[in-house]
Amino acid sequence: MPNAIVLREFGPAENLVFEEVARPEPGPGQLRLRVSAIGANYHDVYVRTGLYRTLDLPGVPGIELVGVVEALGEGVTGPAPGTRVACVTGRYGCYTEEAVVPAELVLPMPDAVSDEAAAAGMLKGLTAAMLLTEAYRVGAETTLLIHAGAGGVGQIVTRWAKALGATVISTVGSEAKARVAQACGADHVILYREEDFVARVKEITGGRGVDVAYDSVGKDTFAGSLDCLAPLGHLVNFGQASGPVPPFEVSRLAAGSHTLLRPIIFHYLADPARRGPLFEMLLGAMEAGLVTPDVALSLPLSEAAEAHRALESRALAGAVILRP
C-alpha cells in the first residue's frame, strides 16, 4: 500500500502526518500515477494553516507532482501507461506515492527535463506564464516590479520578462538573494530591508513608477506596491507570504486609475481555451531555458513538515521538492 501525507487538522507543520493509505483507483477522466517527485509550494502552507480552507479534512495536500502513468480511468485515451507526466491540480492529493489526477491537467515531460526540475517548475512556470500574459501582457516597453525576485516564481518571471525585452526591478531580502536575482537578469535589485523600495523604484523610473507590480508577499508590501505604480498601472497580488492583505478603500486605486488583480492559476487552467496556450508557453520556455528552477531543498516525503518550516522561514532562494 502507498504512503501519503495526511492532514487531519489545520495548524502547525507537525500536523502533516506520514502514513499508509489505500491505493487510489482512477475514476472517469482520471489517471493514476506512480509519483517520482512533488513540488512543495507556499500554497500548501496556506492550506495547512487553514488560511485557505480548500482541502476537505482529513485530506492529502499538495498541488504539483511528476510521475509515471500506471492506469487510465473510464473515457481516458491517453497518455499511455509508462508516460512520464507533470501535473498541477487544485483538487489536491499530490503528497503521496501514488496519485489520481485529472487527465486533462497532465503534461508529458520532455526527456531533457528531470523529475526534480519538472516538479519544481510546473506550477511556477505556469504561474509565470499567466502573470506575463493573462494578468498583464509584458513586452519590450514594460517596466515591472517583482517582489521576492530570488524565489521560485521570481526567478522565472525575471528570466522570461527579460527574454520579452522588459525592464525588471527586483526586491530581495539579502545580498545572497540579490546575486541570484542579478544572475537571472534583473536590471535593478533592491534590498528591501535596507532601503525604501518605493522611493528606489521612483528614483529608477524617473518618478513615473512601474507598469505592473507582481506581489506575492502580501501584507508587508501591498501598500508600497500600489505606490510604485505608474498612471494606469496594474498591481497583481498573487500570494501573501507575509500574511493576508487587510481591507482597503477601493477609491485608493483612483490615484492613478490603477487596477488590482488577485489571480489563482487553477481558474486559468480550468478554461481549455487558456490551458492549452499556457501549456505550450511552458514547454517553449523550458526548451528555451527560461524555466530552469533551482532546487534549494530536496527532502523525503516523510519530512514534509520540515519542508513547510523551510518555506515559512522565507530564507530559501529556489524551490522545495519532496521525494516519495
From TrEMBL:
One Pfam family recorded for the sequence: ADH_zinc_N
EC number: 1.6.5.5
Origin: domain of life: Bacteria
CDD domains linked: QOR2 (cd05286)
Gene Ontology CC annotation, any one: cytosol
InterPro entries tied to this protein: ADH-like_C, ADH-like_N, ER, GroES-like_sf, NAD(P)-bd_dom_sf, QOR-like
GO MF annotation list: mRNA 3'-UTR AU-rich region binding; NADPH binding; quinone reductase (NADPH) activity
Keyword field contains Ligase: no
Keyword NADP: yes
Stretches assigned to the Enoyl reductase (ER) domain: 11-322
Keywords: NADP, Oxidoreductase
SMART domains according to UniProt: PKS_ER
UniProt xrefs under PANTHER family: QUINONE OXIDOREDUCTASE PIG3-RELATED, QUINONE OXIDOREDUCTASE-RELATED
Name used for this protein in its record: Quinone oxidoreductase 1
Source species: Roseovarius indicus
Lineage: Bacteria, Pseudomonadati, Pseudomonadota, Alphaproteobacteria, Rhodobacterales
